[in-house]
Design a protein that fits this description.
Blueprint (H helix, E strand, L loop, with lengths): L10 E5 L2 H4 L7 E18 L10 E19 L4 H12 L5 E9 L5 E9 L12 H10 L1 E2 L2 E2 H14 L5 H12 L4
Parallel strand pairs: 1-5
Antiparallel strand pairs: 1-3, 2-3, 2-4, 4-5, 6-7
Length: about 180
Amino acid sequence: MSSFMTTAQDFWVFGYGSLMWRPGFPFEEKQIAMVHGYHRSLCIYSHVHRGTQEVPGLVLGLDRGGSCQGVAFRVRADNWDEVIAYLREREQVTMIYLETMLRVRLPDGQKVVAVAYVVDRQHQQYAGRLERDALIRFVRQGKGVSGDNPDYVLSTYEHLREIGVHDATLAWLAKQLAVQTPV
């Protein structure tokens, strides 16, 4: 985990999953943002938030390659300690993510550096790229301390639709979850 220092300037946080629709921290503004070099992927076995170790669910990670459109939140500098502590408690429960700083592009073309959580491919919870039948099975079975895995997937899918982002995998999963029958 990086040990970022408190800054005298406002800072940014990049969300690509549930942080987009449930940030849980105070912010001054939010904007749609793009990060290059990483893509959104259901590549993490969830053992806490959306599943258990015995019955894992799946959650999103930023994985290598491609690009990802999400939301950047500008946070006041004097909230640094509080927000970073909150994010670490939320995102680093099992240390599956690498806390890093990524360059993100805002709609006006401005580039800012944002705190982001990238999947650690060496971690035991890294699922990699799963086939569709495995995706739907893990999502349907997952239930953890933050709720049911299908709710997480549907909420993320709906938020992406609201901001004009198409994610083919989440769209397919949303359609399958609406059917409510095993694949």
